[in-house]
Amino acid sequence: MTTAIASKNQDSGSSNKLLYIDNIKVLLTILVVLHHTFIAYTSSEGWYYNEETSILGARILATACISINQSFFMGYFFLLAAYFTSSSYFKKGISKFIKDRLIRLGTPILFYSFILTPFMCYLVYYFGKEHHITFFEYLSGYNSWIDLGVTWFIAALLLFTVLYAIVKKVFKITFDKPIAVPNSLSILLFSIILGIISFLVRIVFPVGWILKPIGFQLGHFPQYVALFSIGLLASKNNWFDQLSEKTGKQLKKVVWFCLLFFPVFFIVKFKLNTPSSWFSGGFHWQALLYAVWEQMIGLSILTTFLIKGKRNWNKTSKLLTKVTRSSFAVYIFHPLIIVVFTLCARNWNIEPAVKLLVMTPLIIIGSFIFGSLVLLIPGIKKII
Q: At 251, which helix (H) or strand (E)?
């Protein structure tokens, strides 16, 4: 999420070579908005305001999209952020580096928890639940002040980068010997190992279990830690430029295999009467199968996107530049846009799945327009 900021630290030639990373970041930001809009209109919980669809096919399709999305999109953000971390650290030094991260990452966390979350919850309370009281009356009974919401990612990134800086300073770890870029087999084997590790972690911390109040889903953190570490290695060894077309083609086949395999989970669920929770964690073979599948498709997708992006998306335009610059603001404020739009359409007496089709493009466009407007506020660009 901080790649736009970090890329400014590169020389102009390097920046031009990495335009595709900014474009991938825009795509990931759109996926974040889609992810939460899908949850709002297809689930009974998991968002500030939900309208659950009654169409089984829509729920199944949304579950598939959410599962595939979850397999790579947040881990991808950690990978890209880490890619620019070391260059920023060496340019600024540990003190300025940590101070800069505390301001740029800490400020959005505080704003979201203490201002944005109470306001969104009030909107749902007033319009969604029709308790017509004033905002200050609502705040008098509000007790969830530490609620990071989507800024859990920013908090985790802040934690990772500060730990990186401390370890770098204290232990003075260096990797002078170049590490060869991974091929498709290495990436596939790594994804299987990562899936097994995720399975073991999820025996204790299943998917859906949240570390309150900061919002960390520890069941996903093996991937986040791994991809942040890989981002550091990739930057050190220039892996992004070295990934081959052959690797991309081979991993694209893995993606298709995993997509075709996904219906197996529904067959296991309905034919064997398997509880959904058994896929999320615990000592169940279903949890192991799902965890390995998740990492295989996730790492294959993100690597394929990197290779395709380097080949086809390494360009920009005035519109793309503006959209890229507003991506961080979109990430922070898109929950507000989703809440406002879904509440505005709450009295539209139509199936939520149809609402999803109509509202999704409006929410995406609205999020980027609002993000661009936020950047016009004096001083905001110094933070986001």
A: helix 245-261
